[in-house]
Design brief:
alpha+beta, seven-stranded mixed sheet, 7 strands, about 30% strand, globular
Length: about 150
């Protein structure tokens, strides 16, 4: 049984960040095979700012209260969605995204082109590519696909 909870900005404590960061890292290592270890460690330094800065942070917790996935939303745009690899393939990503669509009207997102599993998942969930960039948001050579939900 997994519960989804909303973490308000003033409740995003260092202890919470310490629990979410390993989930992020395990997920990235399992899905972002185009990144080197050094790149992952470099990006990891900025992840706590993403947790703090996102308007809506939703965390999926297991029956023991441990985070197993999370999602961040700004202005109807999915900014982050990461699932612990041990919990992938069991509908958790779908559950989080459907929750985001129902409660926060998620309409758009960006996904790394080199992450075909995520791209395929979002297509399966009704999102279609409307724009592509050669560089990611940090100016690195990792193309992004911008996707929009189509009903």
């Amino acid at each position: 049984m997994v519960d989804i909870i909303t973490i308000e900005k003033n409740d995003r404590t260092p202890e919470l960040i310490e629990k979410l960061l390993p989930v992020w890292e395990r997920s990235v290592r399992a899905t972002h095979i185009f990144l080197s270890n050094e790149e992952i460690l470099q990006i990891k330094n900025y992840v706590p700012m993403a947790f703090s800065g996102v308007e809506h942070l939703l965390v999926a917790q297991d029956e023991h209260g441990a985070p197993v996935g999370f999602m961040g939303i700004n202005d109807h745009s999915l900014e982050i969605l990461f699932i612990d690899p041990e919990h992938r393939g069991h509908g958790l990503g779908r559950k989080l995204l459907e929750y985001g669509i129902a409660h926060y009207d998620v309409q758009t997102l960006a996904v790394n082109e080199q992450n075909p599993q995520a791209h395929g998942f979002y297509e399966h969930m009704g999102f279609k590519v409307f724009k592509r960039t050669e560089l990611d948001e940090q100016g690195q050579p990792y193309p992004l696909l911008y996707m929009r939900r189509e009903d």
